[in-house]
Structure formats: C-alpha cells, structure tokens
Amino acid sequence: MENNTNPYGQGGYSPNPQAKSRFIFAILTFVLGAWGLNWLYLGHVEIAKNKFILMIIGLLLILACGIGTIMIAVLQIIALVDVFKVLSGTINEDAHGIPFKD
Length: 102
Fold this sequence. Notes:
This protein is mostly helical and 102 residues long.
C-alpha cells in the first residue's frame, strides 16, 4: 500500500486550489490599487475599505475645493509601490496566509 502524503492528489506537486495568482493581484493593483479593490482579492477587507473611503474623500475634496488631488496622487503612488512589492515577492500571501501560486 502506498503512503500518499500529498493532500491535493496523487503523484507530483499540485498547488493549493485556494491559492491566489500573483499575476492577477499585480494587475488588479496596477489598475484598481488606488481604490483599494485589489486587497479584496486577497481577503484584506479592512485595508480595501479604508483605501476606498480615502479615495471617495479625495474625489469629494476635488469637487469641493481642489485639494483632493494630493490625496489621490498619494493613493496612486502607494498602489505603484504595492505593484513593485508584489512583483518582488515582499507581498507573497493572502489574508489567510496561503502563498501565491506563480
């Protein structure tokens, strides 16, 4: 009788079916990172909610008096930093500690 210790099937390595894609997260971060919606993909609801609220406040401040542009620019810079962090491997797991599949 064969002792199979691989919980995902027989034979070779098979990644965790719940693992998120590093590529998809990088694309979401590049496109929607300033809004914080990329963090929903990884399950970080609080981070996503806070960044979304900051973006809405920034947009309202632009409409009211024009100073929200700085806030939105900072959120976009943070999103670009997050893109570099995910591509370099600094961000490498989701909210549940499951590593990215590459």
